[in-house]
UniProtKB/TrEMBL annotation:
Residues 329-543 form the Glycoamylase-like domain. It comes from the Bacteria. This is Beta-glucosidase. Residues 52-136 form the SbsA Ig-like domain. The lineage of its organism: Bacteria, Pseudomonadati, Bacteroidota, Chitinophagia, Chitinophagales. Pfam families: Big_5, Glycoamylase. It comes from Flavihumibacter stibioxidans. Keywords: Signal.
Length: 560
């Protein structure tokens, strides 16, 4: 028995030591490798989130689904939501779901309407196992328009008067203190514009008629302008430069070779002066002198000389240093009809009708006549889709298109078709520009982010200019009123300022101009007045020389 017990003890000891020896020889377990984490999907509210989203609710939520669970302690430092357009920083909460593989970001208070925000996730985020975040999240969104009214409701008639009065302040406040001529834009210092001053004269006539200023105030400002133009402003064969120094009268170069006469800008100026001459018709000495001085200026323009050696076309520019180097014949269809009407109307330097037919209208199917249908509207004249809307505004601030016809078209039909095509294009919005609608429309020349361009359906950069729709009131009154109400009541906190509507805006870029430009502000006042009363049309076309010149060119109208 003792021998058996001894054997058992020895055997157990051997087993024990053998077991211990085996355990000590096993390899260490492999270390856990951290798994990288990436984004699988991002939803803005309930829809997939693109890099730039428009029209987002002001209390959005963002849901991110990751490839791996994330480490909760790293979320706060990694997730940011900031305002790119200024204003207070958004307040938001974060929460993890689905075993920390889904992150929900929820704003806790309303974001600002029509504001841009940036949502980002940085590389501070880690997976639950400590792996790196290998996706890039940097997404922008723009909140929707606040549809509440920014101003108390007034009647349509009161609104039109308000727009005219407020816009007129541009011409009154930015008239140069020496010359009275109108500054090119609100920050142009001594640089004044000849064409914009012509528009300003027509705005001044409107302001007197509507009692924004007294007749005496209007007369005094006009006397200052006309005296400066007659005695001090630099002229080239009677024509004015595009820009002048409002203190000295010296030409200011518009471009290197455009440092002399600009016949088109001169025609806008003369159109305004003739309109004022017809309006200020009192027999007293002051208004009689004003009319005589205007006649001196207008009769001094050597329209016929701008044919460049009697060619059958007018030329836009001439410079005493560069002569005819710019070489730009004035051919239609564009904003320059008024230039030919005034050239044919001159009492001293008139051009023959052949210059109109062989020069202005000579492009034929290559740019003058059209006849094609765009967006359901037939366009008699001009380029495809009509071009920028100022083609139907500038000349027709004075020329009344109502019942006006010649060999080529009925001009109210032409201008209405042009405006309707522009409107239809913005409603159809083939390029998907954010914000375009039956209330946000109007493509014409204006400032754009970082520059200036002549917007049109064939040059659409996503910028709307209020002058386009508002100066089209005589052609598209219902569509223009709809745009006006939206610009004023809904976008008024962005667009409506001390001098009326700012020059232009882009909801696509969330950009609002801080500029006003004379040649954009003027048509708003003048064309609204023509729509309401026909005042400027009646004044300009009452001029005997204008009637004679238009008849000579083959125009017919009830007023001729």
């Amino acid at each position: 028995m003792k021998l058996i017990a001894y054997k058992v003890v020895c055997y157990s000891a051997i087993v024990f030591f053998m077991a211990c020896g085996k355990s000590g020889s096993d390899p260490a377990p492999a270390p856990v490798v951290p798994k990288q984490v990436s984004v699988k999907t991002i939803l803005l509210n309930t829809d997939p989130m693109d890099d730039l989203e428009y029209g987002v609710t002001t209390k959005p939520s963002i849901t991110i689904r990751f490839s791996e669970p994330v480490k909760p302690a790293t979320v706060a430092a990694a997730v940011t939501l900031t305002s790119a357009s200024g204003g207070s920083a958004p307040v938001f909460t974060t929460s993890l779901q689905n075993q920390d593989s889904v992150l929900v970001v929820q704003t806790t208070s309303d974001l600002s309407a029509l504001n841009q925000y940036v949502f980002s996730i940085g590389n501070e985020l880690k997976s639950a196992s400590g792996g790196n975040f290998i996706s890039t999240v940097n997404k922008r969104f723009i909140t929707r328009i606040d549809s509440s009214s920014k101003f108390p409701a007034i009647s349509d008639d009161e609104l039109l008067t308000l727009v005219q009065r407020q816009t007129f302040k541009y011409f009154w406040d930015f008239g140069h203190p020496v010359s009275g001529l109108v500054r090119e834009r609100n920050n142009s210092g001594d640089v004044v514009t000849s064409g914009g001053s012509g528009f300003g004269v027509m705005a001044l006539v409107t302001a007197v008629e509507r009692n924004f200023i007294t007749r005496a105030q209007g007369l005094e400002r006009l006397k200052t302008m006309v005296t400066f133009l007659k005695e001090k402003a630099q002229k080239f064969h009677g024509a004015f430069p595009h820009w002048l120094n409002g203190a000295t009268g010296a030409a200011v170069a518009f471009s290197q070779k455009d440092n002399g006469a600009d016949l088109v800008e001169t025609s806008f100026l003369v159109m305004g002066l003739i309109t004022a001459r017809q309006y200020f018709d009192d027999a007293g000495a002051e208004e009689t002198t004003l009319r005589n001085d205007i006649n001196t200026i207008c009769n001094g323009v050597e329209w016929n000389w701008f044919r460049k050696n009697n060619e059958e076309v007018l030329y836009w520019h001439w410079s005493s240093t560069y002569n005819w180097d710019m070489n730009m014949p004035i051919r239609g269809w564009n904003e320059c009809l008024i230039t030919y009407v005034l050239a044919a109307s001159s009492a001293t330097n008139a051009v023959p009708a052949s210059v109109y037919t062989q020069g202005w209208a000579s492009a034929g199917g290559n740019g003058f006549t059209n006849g094609n249908t765009y967006l359901g509207v037939k366009l008699p004249l001009g380029p495809a889709y009509g071009g920028p809307l100022f083609f139907s505004h500038y000349s027709f601030m004075g020329i009344n298109p109502t019942g006006l016809t010649d060999t080529y078209t009925n001009y109210m039909t032409q201008n209405t078709a042009h405006a309707q095509i522009n409107y239809n294009y913005c409603v159809a919005n083939p390029k998907g520009q954010y914000g375009y609608s039956d209330m946000i429309w109007g493509l014409t020349a204006s400032d754009i982010p970082g520059g200036y361009t002549a917007s049109s359906p064939t040059n659409d950069v996503g910028v709307i200019a209020p002058t386009a729709a508002l100066a089209s009131f005589p052609y598209t009154p219902d569509q223009s009123m709809k745009a006006l109400k939206f610009f004023y009541y809904i976008l008024g906190d962005k667009l409506w300022k001390d001098y009326g509507f700012v020059d232009a805006f882009s909801l696509k870029e969330l950009w609002f101009a801080d500029s006003y430009i004379a040649i954009d502000q003027g048509p708003i006042i003048v064309m609204i007045e023509n729509y309401r009363t026909g005042l400027l049309w009646d004044m300009f076309t009452s001029a005997p020389e204008v009637k004679a010149g238009m008849k000579k060119l083959g125009f017919t109208a009830p007023y001729l």
